[in-house]
Amino acid sequence: MPSSTAFLEAIKARRTNYAITNTSPIPDSKIQEIINETVLHVPSAFNSQSTRVVLLLKGEHEKLWDITTDALRAIVPAEQFPATEQRMRSFKAGYGTVLFYTDRAVVRGMQDKFAVYADRFPTWGTESTAMHQFAVWTALELEGFGASLQHYNPLIDEKVASTWAIDRDWELTSTLVFGAPTGEAGPKTFESLEKRVKVFGA
Fold first, then answer.
1. Which of 181, 193, 192, 177 is nearest to 87 (CA)?
2. pTM of the model
3. Contact 173, 102 (CB under 8 A)
4. Nearest CA-CA partner of 97 in 156, 49, 168, 43
5. Whole-number Å distance between alpha carbons of 102 and 122
6. Which of 26, 43, 44, 202 is the most exposed place for a label (fewest CB within 10 A)?
7. pLDDT per position in the chain (202 positions), as tens?
8. Which DSSP state fits 42?
9. What is the distance, to the nearest Å, from the Cα of residue 137 to the centroid of all Cα atoms in its chain?
10. CA–CA distance, 97 with 77 (Å, rounded to integer)
């Protein structure tokens, strides 16, 4: 099989799956290897390496979703909270969560060093973090996990930072919650490629 075919098949296999459990098909060391290899090799503008990652497993993962539940309880209307709480329980039922950050200190340093591009570095930092999210998510799917990407920042930022002693210059962008899947991902629809892709010169 050509290498690009295998890569594209992996991309197709990466799907959002909310039905997960607190079991893992691989050792924790393999999960850490996925994180480490991703952080080392996913590109960033000017090789700035501004993405930061925190991996929470088992009890630490559960603690994160307790924090998120408490934060949401303070702002969600009481009549709507049962549905919200059920969603939080489904995330807590997973095996782990990956938190993705952009290090603002690195971004500022690049802005100072390359002033002509200063206004672009925040966007470039976000782009690099997004590539890390995609790479980790795809790799976890290949290992047999189901996962979904969540965004409860900045609501949980302060409590998360104090709980795990996270550098205050690290800006949380997303959380990837994962676990062994109990079902298949739902159907996915696609916009026409004619609306989304243009080719010239072929």
1. 177
2. 0.96
3. yes
4. 156
5. 9
6. 202
7. 568 999 999 999 999 999 999 999 999 999 999 999 999 999 999 999 999 999 999 999 999 999 999 999 999 999 999 999 999 999 999 999 999 999 999 999 999 999 999 999 999 999 999 999 999 999 999 999 999 999 999 999 999 999 999 999 999 999 999 999 998 888 899 999 999 999 999 9
8. S
9. 7
10. 26
